[in-house]
Specification:
The structure holds two protein chains of two kinds.
Chain A lengths: L5 E14 L2 E14 L3 E5 L6 H9 L6 E6 L2 E2 L7 E4 L11 H5 L1 H5 L4 H15 L14 H14 L4 E5 L7 H18 L2 E6 L2 H7 L2 E5 L6 E6 L11 H20 L2
Parallel strand pairs in A: 3-8, 3-9, 6-7, 7-8
Antiparallel strand pairs in A: 1-2, 1-4, 4-5, 9-10
Helix pairs in contact in A: 4-5, 7-8
Chain B lengths: L6 H30 L8 H13 L9 H32 L1 H14 L8 H35 L3 H9 L4 H39 L5 H10 L3 H32 L4
Helix pairs in contact in B: 2-9, 3-4, 3-5, 3-7, 3-8, 5-7, 7-8, 7-9, 8-9
Classes of the chains: A alpha/beta, B mainly alpha.
């Protein structure tokens, strides 16, 4: 791939939920092409359907209209070609760090030595050497999410889906994990779709920031962020872009009152 | 050199001292009560101690066997009943927890049978299942329901996030069952086993009092009561207490180990 190929193509996505007798439209007219190696942040007010969007891409929820193509193949259900990282980690408490990371490989009946090689690689990548045999309850939140990222990457997915992955962490750990994620991203060259409600986080990590409108969720605006990384949060352009995005979000909050 | 106690040692020492005091007070109350009543009905702790030792050394004339054999008879029945309960309650519980149809089907039957004390079945089982299985079946019933309801609850308590995580890793239904639902249910299963052991143990003794033939601690107690050897009757009760404590401790230990192994401390 030359870096300009579209990995994920979302076309006219529509999602509605049946609630009693009425129909609740969560997402409509949502179309987006995501290129290979791109880091896309989806930002929006709470309840705008951004998590639902990610769950649909992951195949955990069914769409009610439109389609999603991953490498030109329509998504019909969950699969290991999309790695998912959850806000609340979703680690298997009875499995060690290594066994958590090897979960998907184990399902595919990969031989033990091969599994070990891969888990070793990702344990090193996320910086968890020495914790291979620890259980999740022995780890801090940031370390848990490192396991979550390694587990998602171990299947070598075409795309990494991250649902507010640092939302459960304290501010300091959060900033550290953003840096770590960018390092991992540049080493693995994975395509990332990252859901967040933090404007600061989105501007810090993303190539493109997609701002969604409140229910029903549509694309309101797309900001391209073409600055070098690591980005300086204290810089003038950082602050001004953040202000611009916040203004977009605020309009959203006002029009939907 | 001076002995130095850490905090944890001091705590342990303290609780051991309290346990010893508690036991001494218990024996003193027993002694006082036995002094207040005619001694042939209410033996002293000393008489019971003598009878206890004797019951292990010499076969009693009424049944012709020692306490060792009574104990092993009871244990064999208990293990059969418990193993049967576990072998059936686990798969049925998993099925009822997993499938709504199975639960709707099973629940009414369970709710009808559950309130009947297992012992109330003893005469019936004695008639239809015979000398050996008669007293085994109340143990089975007593242990079955706590295991069943805990397993059903365990399956229903599986964290949906873990199921989602497994599905995004490529897990299909069979894998979800074996690699997510089953392990998440183990701590609940262990709780069911612990409760089932306690209830099952009560059932075996009670059932043996009603129907056992050939041996068993329950039978021993009833026989000794019938012939008026209350010191030996009490010795039988002490045996039950000791075995009961051992099973509770053992299952508590297994439960703790399991939850530690499961990373759910």
């Amino acid at each position: 791939m030359d870096g300009n190929e579209v990995v994920l193509s979302i076309r006219d996505l529509h999602k509605s939920f049946k609630k009693d007798d009425s129909e609740l439209v969560a997402i409509e007219d949502f179309s987006l092409d995501i290129k290979d190696g791109e880091f896309v942040c989806v930002l929006g007010p709470s309840g705008c359907g951004k998590t639902t969007l990610l769950r649909i891409i992951a195949g955990l929820e069914k769409l009610t209209g439109g389609k999603i193509l991953l490498n030109n193949k329509e998504i019909t259900g969950p699969g290991s070609d999309r790695g998912m990282v959850f806000q609340e980690f979703g680690l298997f408490p009875w499995r060690t760090v290594r066994k958590n990371i090897e979960f998907g490989l184990e399902i595919r009946k990969m031989p033990k030595e091969e599994r070990r090689k891969i888990s070793d690689k990702y344990i090193e990548l996320v910086g968890l050497e020495g914790f291979e045999t620890s259980h999740p309850y022995e780890l801090s939140g940031g370390m848990k999410q490192r396991v979550g990222i390694a587990r998602a990457l171990a299947n070598d997915p075409a795309i990494l889906l991250m649902d507010e992955p640092f939302g459960a962490l304290d501010a300091q750990t959060r900033n550290l994990m953003q840096k770590e994620l960018l390092r991992i991203w540049s080493e693995t060259k994975k395509t990332v779709v990252f859901i967040t409600h933090s404007v600061d986080e989105a501007v810090y990590v993303a190539d493109r920031v997609v701002v969604m409108s409140a229910r029903p969720g549509k694309i309101r605006y797309i900001f391209n962020v073409e600055w070098e990384r690591p980005r300086d949060r204290a810089s003038v352009e950082f602050a001004s872009l953040r202000k611009k995005i916040l203004a977009e979000l605020e309009k959203e909050a006002v029009t939907n009152r | 050199m001076r002995a130095v106690f850490g905090d944890s040692e001091r705590k342990l020492l303290k609780s051991v001292i309290i346990i010893v005091i508690s036991l001494v007070v218990f024996v003193l109350i027993w002694w006082a009560l036995s002094a207040a009543f005619p001694s042939e009905y209410f033996p002293t702790p000393y008489d019971v101690g003598v009878a206890f030792i004797d019951s292990f050394q010499n076969p009693d004339p009424n049944t012709g066997v020692t306490m060792w054999q009574h104990m092993s008879q009871s244990l064999v029945r208990f293990i059969w009943g418990f193993a049967l309960a576990l072998a059936l309650a686990l798969p049925i519980g998993l099925l009822m927890g997993f499938s709504n149809v199975a639960e709707s089907f099973g629940k009414p039957i369970v709710e009808i049978i559950r309130p009947i004390p297992p012992i109330a079945w003893a005469p019936f089982f004695f008639i239809v299942a015979g000398l050996f299985w008669g007293p085994v079946m109340p143990v089975f019933l007593g242990a079955f329901f706590p295991i069943l309801s805990n397993v059903v609850f365990g399956v229903k308590s599986v964290d949906p996030l873990l199921l989602d995580a497994a599905r995004t890793q490529g897990a299909g239904k069979p894998t979800l069952f074996t690699k997510v639902i089953l392990p998440s249910t183990i701590p609940y299963l262990m709780t069911g086993i612990r409760i089932g052991l306690g209830i099952g143990w009560m059932c075996i003794v009670a059932a043996e009092m009603i129907v056992a033939i050939g041996g068993g601690v329950g039978l021993y107690i009833r026989t000794m009561a019938d012939v008026g050897r209350y010191d030996y009757m009490f010795a039988g009760m002490v045996v039950i207490a000791i075995l009961g404590i051992l099973t509770t401790e053992l299952s508590g230990y297994i439960e703790r180990r399991a939850s530690k192994w499961m990373g759910m401390k």
